[in-house]
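Bit of a strange request maybe. I'm writing a small parser for structure token strings and I need a real example to test against, not something I typed by hand. Could someone generate the tokens for this chain?
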Amino acid sequence: MEMISYSETLDYLYRLQWHGIQPGLKRISVLLSALDHPERSYRSIHIGGTNGKGSTAAIIAAILQKAGFRVGLYTSPHLIHFSERISLSGVPICEGEIIRLTALLREVINAIEGFSAEITFFEFTTAMALLYFSLMQVDFAVVEVGMGGRYDATNILLPDVSAITNIGLDHEQYLGGSLLEIAKEKAGIIKAEIPVVTAATQPEVCELFEGVARFNHAPLFRLGHEIKTFGEDPGRFLYRGIRERIVECPLMGRHQIDNSAVALGVIEQCQQRGVVLSDADISEGMKGVRWPGRLEVVRHNPLILLDGAHNPAGARVLASFLTGLNPDRRGKRWLMIGVMRDKDIKGILAQITPWADEIVLTRPDIERAADPHLMSTFVEKGPSVKTVCEGVPDAIRYVESRVQTEDTLVITGSLYTIGEAKAVYSGAAASSIRG
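Reply from user aminoacidic:
Good idea to test on real output. This should exercise your parser:
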């Protein structure tokens, strides 16, 4: 098995993105079969939805880890380093393992007669994560859906519990142009007799999920019905599911109450299936959760927030948070935003730009990024000043040369944008391509 350097390994992985997005489970099924199905050697939790998947996964993983389990966590995309996608009990996979597993997987793929040469980047990295978790003998793998659900590579799993955080418009070119079409794709992770927890609220979506769950004899637990929350601050709220508890979550934003509730619903279903978790494990695990890039504070004076809102629903949640943020705070409100061109740019901007005094339009270093000059045409006329900066580092330099200590800067629009911003503020070098 020939070994190559880490940079050469990443070059190989990122070149797989040339194959684009190819929904379907055939390629991942063939590959995992050739690996003797590593995903069957541990228990798993599968998390889909439009927004909040990563936060929910991080909360579940933190609780299980606090209870002493070896926990694998697979999420996407990464912010700065590829290794962020795959972690073991909070520790990202090391470069040496990425090199070794990439070489091993390439060797296996080449040995499969007639196997498609067009395996996608996400399929390859999913196989890498599932194999790594097996080799590391994890007790649980907490796995986030990449896109959709029904044909997502992660849907090869047969989990203990599934979760669908919420449903909103996103990836319409792949999943469909209506909420119901998107919900049908998300519902594809509902499996026979496996409990599913959801925060979806739209009546037609809930009716669909109820029908799919009933057909599969899958117990369904809905936020607002079997699961309820009381309170407006994720720092302390009341949860009522199988049992009642006071919850303290350090993640900011009202939406994190819903994500926390879904996570706790999953945890309760794990308990129902024999997983031993104490109240202290749950409480302390929740208090210790961290999830970068979601209302993350990187500086206090001026206040600089990073948030990966990348669709209208996410932008609406961010705008709601900002409206109630430090109402007595004086100073200019800066918004730096870079969006992918396949997103609903107008819808995202309409939600968030009214908050800002100056809007700095930019683009991260990825081919999918929208032209900031084009974005400027979608900004509704108003009192806000518009400035265009071609790259995220240039945009940060522009704002930093003008921002005052009492100002607020919010960087958003895409996880790719905040990944580059996070790299600038941490002094790290971000990967140039982060599919």
